[in-house]
Amino acid sequence: MTITAHSGRSLAEVTVEAARNGDLVLDDIRVSRETLLAQADTAQRSGSAQLAMNLRRAAEMTALTSEEMLSAYEALRPHRSSFAELEELAQRLADRDAPTCAALVREAATAYQRRGLLR
Question: Which Gene3D superfamilies has this protein been placed in (predicted)?
Fold first, then answer.
């Protein structure tokens, strides 16, 4: 497996010297979806099912912008969203090819409803 940055740059190209020279962009230091999925497969094979699921969710999140990710985190804080708002967030995630993230948001919405943590 070849490890690449989110930008597609090879790991060998992401160096301290490149950073000092200003040759790197943010996506050069972000991990790629493919690398996270490969790590998830390794975790699954080694018996770490929860770690594998977390890595799969992280892989899905690489399709989101930083703003979208922060907005989702904010929405998931207790008393910040209604059930309908969390359901809308889950649908947006599902539409962005992030089904395990969407399932997590739906699970949270149900748990928040049961515990009185919705807005």
Answer: Propanediol/glycerol dehydratase, small subunit
DSSP symbols for 29-54: SSBPHHHHHHHHHHHHHTT-HHHHHH
Cβ-Cβ contacts under 8 Å for 25 (sequence gap 6 or more)? 7
**pTM summary value:** 0.79
List the one residue out of 117, 86, 80, 113 whose CA is nearest residue 101. Answer: 86
Q: What is the pLDDT of residues 30-70, one digit of tens each?
A: 888 998 999 999 999 999 999 999 999 999 999 998 899 99
Q: Given pLDDT bands bounded at 50, 70 and 90, which one contains residue 6? A: confident
Q: How many CA atoms lie within 13 A of 48 on its CB side?
A: 11
Calpha distance 59→51 (Å, rounded): 12
